[in-house]
# Entry
Amino acid sequence: MISVEDWAEIRRLHRSEGVSQAAIARRLRISRNTVARALASDRPPRYQRAPRGSVVDAFDARIRSLLAEWPTMPATVIAERIGWTRSLTVLKDRVRELRPLFAGVDPADRISYAPGEVAQCDLWFPPLPVPVGAGQQRVLPVLAMTCGHSRVTDAVMIPSRRGGDILAGMWEVIADWGACPRTLLWDRESAIGGTGRLTVEAASFAGTLGVRIRLAPPRDPESKGLVERRNGFFETSFLPGRTFTSPVDFNIQISQWLAERANVRHLRAIGARPVDLWPADRAAMVALPPMSPVIGLTGRVRLGRDYYLRIDANDYSVDPRAIGRFVDWIATPARVVATCAGQVVAEHDRSWTNAATITDPHHQATAKVLRVELAERRATRRPGTRSHPDGHVVALRALPDYDALYGVDFDTTPEVQPDDQSGAGSTAADRI
# Structure
């Protein structure tokens, strides 16, 4: 077999210089048959080794039988079933070659997105506790959003994976973009649509923005593979070697890293940098509404004597003058505000810790004044009276007065019965 260099030289001499086959054979000192075969072939020669047998050939039939019944059986289990004692590399190569014949293939299509069409959303849980204050550290979720056309990615750490906090994180990202993609793709996150239908909070959020939140099919992470790969990119490129002092510090660092690293690198899939395609992507998005959507955790309770609200495992004080009345509260990642009849009765910074008690000194002072006023009213009250809420004194009647009013007569005379032994009478109480 001649080399590629000789093959190329034979064809050059014959085609370019018109040298005869016999002359080429003499010049290159090869046979004329070799020259003829080289001129007849339009492709360079390639050495091919004759196939040799493999030690796994003897087990081929048994491997096929196992895969026919259990197409997903791991190669290590197959090795145990067939009594394989040699290196697993050869066996795994054969199993990898045979498995598609029985398990079938699951091709994944490539999807192209129009500008402004979609943004994929997901929660990423960094495997690194972040200090949240009061000596506590927590593993907190990070909301990540990736635009389909430009691949621009943004991320923000949020206090919890409850619906109000997730929507607050989405609004922070969308407000920073200045526009909203026409479709927001989510998986079956419980706070967004764990049952296959959007929650009331998520549907209200989408309706206010005038966009659609679409849920991916169940158990199909490939539907939002763009943001899933970004989560892996965070763990391998952003997280290593970093320390954080608070969630705010985390958000500052990841925001800078996204702007300086992730969104300015060249992506082979789109043949450009995300920042280069961002202007066209943003221009095709939906403009933001004049009013912000409802975000954050919300609730309504009747305030008890213990004038505190329990919000996300923490207690926040409320003006004690609202005791006994309904109080509406809303908690964003930054603030907690409570209102009663349209008046603000509490306002605190949101705590991301657990089991914390946040007290406003003004609420404590008000509670002290109310207790003193109540003590003074009780001290000036006449016996047999009580104070009405408007301040005037109300007399209290004795219970027998009500018995006489309704004609109820309770006979309190003890029953007396003769005693058979002594003849003396004894009451029922004595016999008990």
Q: What stands out?
A: Confidence is low (pLDDT under 50) at residues 420-432. The radius of gyration is 41 Å.
